[in-house]
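The authors assume throughout that readers already know how a fold can be written as discrete tokens. For illustration, here is how one protein appears when written out as sequence plus structure tokens:
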Amino acid sequence: MNHTNSQIHSTPLPDREGQGGESSRVSTYSFTVEPFHVDFTGHLFLGVLGNHLLNAAGHHSHDRGWGIDHLNQQHFSWVLSRLSIELTETPAQYEHVEVETWVESVMKLFTERNFLIRNADDGRIYGYARSIWAMIDMETRQPSNLLELKDGDILNYVIPAEEKPCPIEKFPRLPRLSPQPLAVREGSCQLQDKRSNSAAYSVDSAPSLMGRAGGESVLMTHYSDVDINGHINSIKYIEHILDLFPREQFAQQRIRRFDIAYKAESYWGDALHFFVEEGTHGGALAATTDIEIRKHVGAAEKPAGETVVQAKVSWEKPEA
């Protein structure tokens, strides 16, 4: 859940000149889509793109005195709360990509950061992303007042929406998939959805986690899921969610938009339960899918468990 510097390398570029002093508040970072970062269609894994976005955010913050290396010395850290990525095209193997990032707003407890993703050679825009971050006290784990830290210095880097718009919608309200307790059977969980006729199922009847959980609804977290803070890495949730879908989904469609909200932290050894509800359909394959990840499912005091992540994946057929 916490942002940490990714192992994926992004190269800072000289700040681009903009209107109204924009160059001091916007930064651009570049990377090449390497063969080991693409899927079987030859396009960039969404998780890898997510890592580059977080890398850009980290560099941008660091260069202005708000990086985690500075903050950790004062026992503060950034926490990613929400991330939305919307793409009209997915970068392909060997393409050169630039990520531009800036802060749109700062409130007492949250800040909004945006991203533009474009081709570095011809300038065509792949898409945009929006994110919401909080600053937490590492000792109390409680949010800190951003406007009081460093005498409100962070406000010097804000570019309001009317000055530099981000043309994708803000974060949608993601539904809680079921208000009902979950029926636990044979170590897996069946979602009881009595609200609608939409398809609702547990991962053991869905395409599943392909070997990680043996077709069951529970994924045990392991070494490679954990970041330097001891929490499950924010991008790992994206990768595990996309592993739920069958090969045909990626062969016939592309991800148009991915929304994810981080609700609670999880740790090495936690059992994560995945619940899926399909929304609208585009032929045989779902056009939208809601996912909820919970931990501590089946606990006596709270059988439904605790929500860790909510997400929505929106698909479309790629242009010929």
Helices lie at 46-62, 68-72, 234-242, 247-252.
